[in-house]
What does this fold into?
Amino acid sequence: MVYDMIIPALPFIGGYLFTYSLYRMNIIRKAIHINVWNFIVGLAFLISAGAGFLLLLLMELGIKLSISPQLLYWHVELGVTLALVTVFHIHTYWKSAKTMFFPAKKRVKT
Amino acid sequence: MKKESPCQMKEVSKSRLGSKLNLSRHKLQSKLWRSKIKSALESSSLKERLLMLASTIPFIAASTMSSSCATSCPYGMVNDPYPGQCPRYVDLDGNGICDLSQTTTTTADDTSTTSTTSDDTSITDGATSTDTGHGNGANADDGALINQTDANSTVPQDYPSLDSGNIDGDATNYQVLPVTMIIIGSYLVTYFLFKKGILNRTKHRRIWNLLVTLGYIGSGGTGIILAVLINLGIRTALNPSLTFWHVELSVLMVVGTLIHLHIYRKPFKNMFRVLFGFRTGSGKNSEALRGKSK
It folds into this structure.
């Protein structure tokens, strides 16, 4: 089975750039832009992690289902999407993420 | 004997005094710390005590994990010879095979090997036949040659695993439940410390944000490498270990995400309100409504 890596990512990159430019042009509120992408990241996580968990459970129980290959395929595809949308999520919350990676310097009294 | 000058003596006494002061300060700090923890414990309610009890979960899980890890190879190798294909190589019985990869052996005094292709019947005295419990097809055929596993060859498990992109693999080596318990227990500990004021909100959030990021990077990274390897049809010795770490880091990612949702539950609830107009709770948090509460 060959997994598509770039083609499924393209609509998401385009979509993020689209809503980001709409927000920058003040056509939509920042809340809409942020929450739309939070919802997408949640959905991608739910499907990818759910499929992964189901696959692990089936493997543990030694059950072979006819939908298992499809489940694995969508686990991988949504996983790629999730990885990409996570980058967008970090970009959205970059200010707080920055302090997570590089702690803010303590103010020096002058 | 060398006499010390008054200046030198002064310096020595100063340094002694300094070290004594440092010691007493250190003692004072440790006493304060202890009294803080003690008072926190005394003032805890039943709910908090339960929380504390739950925080012992990681230790129980860790002990469970170490005992289960000790029994089998986490990479699914069978009879891995010296020096071993992974850093976990252990050979306590000194037979040149990693103890973790060694399967349960049955020693028979007289083992007869029967072949259907010839009428000859060869008898092997004192042979040690290895049965992994997963026939590779040779044993399944009626009257087929009973294979013996060569002790000096490393045989990967004869059934397909996730690394080849197949869905039938060996799940017995994945430490899903213990890892989950460790993470949840650790969260309960930090949450308790945060609630008691020992750990501040920023640090608490930072710890869990870093862990969830680690989970995403690890799980996503290993997942993408595996997908690329499968796409290119490359099978390396690293594939089983990559799959193993993909699963383990995915557990961290999933549990970490659920913790992330718990930490940021207010903006999470408000996401539905903003997008679909659902009303959850009071919704007074305007920062959360704007999706900026991070």
Q: What stands out?
A: The CA atoms of residues 58 and 64 of chain A lie 7 Å apart. Chain A has a mean pLDDT of 88. The first helix of chain A runs from residue 9 to 24. The two ends of chain A are 64 Å apart (CA to CA).
